[in-house]
Write a structure and sequence with these properties.
Number of helices: 14
Order of helices and strands: HHHHHHHHHHHHEEEEEHEEEEH
Strand content: 5-15%
Bound molecules: iron/sulfur cluster
Shape: elongated
């Protein structure tokens, strides 16, 4: 399929977008960009990438930061486990590998938070290793090109699509080829309305010939969304707000939040009981600070959030701290809480 890669690479050379991480062969910067762009639009990731490479120009700089600083800079990008894994892996590379990035796909795959796609992207972009990097865009391109109806995101599909990609991959130009496939998927072979008229490989494409573009790729039926109901209590004292660090296996691990009662249709009695038990507050009064629950959508969860201002004396608390309003910007928070502070309480965090 030399004809395929020749056409694709010529198109890529002439049409690729000018992105801040494009063209670098620095494995640290490739790793950063690839982790940031998972589940994230390019426009959204752009400024975060610039902020991270500015604050932490090398893997050693990232390792030297605290997790709290890293999460703070990540605030708003979502999927916070990516930031925690980045920081963990930066420390591992610095402390255990002398600051030297692994140089092969197999070695890269051993890093925490680095899956097959990311390992292949780093190995091929930085070192030219001939491994196909197959992200969602590339799955779509391959499925349409070959008329492959296997359900994607399964182990069986992974093997099939890797074999298909290997048929196309030029062994001496794997980095550019992988980036070109992703670019084709992102800008031409789009999920809806692919621009087949302007596609450099249209004449070799099964879906285009059969007019079956919209049937491919085949995906598993959507995962059921779980609804959760969060009641947040805003407890203040002398221009300070009570915050708690989230722990455990749940969303937003190690971010900070207000005291939380998770309960559907919580009555004021439930709230009073919770505040008495955890904070010793007797006879609190409540003011609902947003007229309706805010619905914050995560990939598999919809959080229905109500913010309550509580009046009453806090007599005791555990694993929480009153944080001065002027210090809030040092505390990473879920974006929905940061927006609440800014928009409703007019405090920047
Ligand atoms: Fe995608 Fe159309 Fe190109 Fe086929 S011809 S790869 S469906 S854009």
């Amino acid at each position: 399929m030399q004809d395929f890669s020749t056409k694709l690479l010529a198109w890529y050379a002439a049409n690729k977008r000018d992105l801040p991480w494009r063209g670098t062969q620095n494995p640290y910067k490739i790793w950063l960009s690839e982790i940031m762009l998972q589940q994230t639009r390019v426009e959204q990731g752009w400024n975060y990438y610039l902020a991270f490479t500015d604050a932490y120009p090398t893997v050693r700089d990232l390792a030297a930061a605290s997790e709290q600083e890293v999460l703070n800079l990540w605030q708003g990008l979502g999927y916070y486990s990516r930031a925690r894994n980045l920081h963990f892996t930066a420390k591992y590379i610095t402390n255990e590998l002398g600051g030297i990035f692994p140089k092969t796909y197999a070695e890269l795959l051993k890093l925490k938070g680095v899956g097959k796609y990311t390992a292949a992207a780093i190995a091929s972009f930085a070192y030219g290793e001939a491994v196909p990097a197959i992200d969602g865009n590339v799955y779509r391109v391959l499925a349409r090109l070959f008329g492959e109806y296997e359900i994607i995101n399964t182990t069986k599909a992974e093997k099939k699509f890797t074999a298909l990609a290997m048929q196309l991959l030029p062994l001496n130009d794997a980095g550019d080829f992988n980036q070109a496939m992703m670019e084709l998927g992102a800008t031409v072979c789009k999920p809806k309305n692919p621009d087949c008229l302007f596609c450099p490989v249209a004449e070799m494409c099964w879906a285009n010939a059969q007019n079956k573009q919209m049937e491919l790729p085949v995906k598993k039926s959507a995962i059921k969304v779980r609804n959760r109901y969060f009641n947040y209590f805003v407890l203040t004292d002398d221009n300070s707000i009570l915050l708690k660090k989230r722990e455990g296996k749940d969303v937003w691990k190690h971010l900070y939040e207000f005291p939380l009662l998770e309960k559907e249709k919580a009555l004021l009695e439930d709230c009073s009981e919770f505040l008495l038990e955890h904070f010793g507050i007797e006879n609190p009064t409540f003011q609902q600070l947003t007229p309706n629950p805010i619905v914050h959508k995560l990939s598999h969860q919809h959080l229905h959030i109500v913010f309550w201002k509580v009046t009453g004396r806090v007599k005791s608390f555990e694993n929480c701290d009153f944080v001065a309003e002027t210090e809030l910007s040092n505390y990473p928070m879920p974006i929905v809480l940061a927006n609440f502070l800014k928009d409703v309480l007019q405090i920047s965090s």
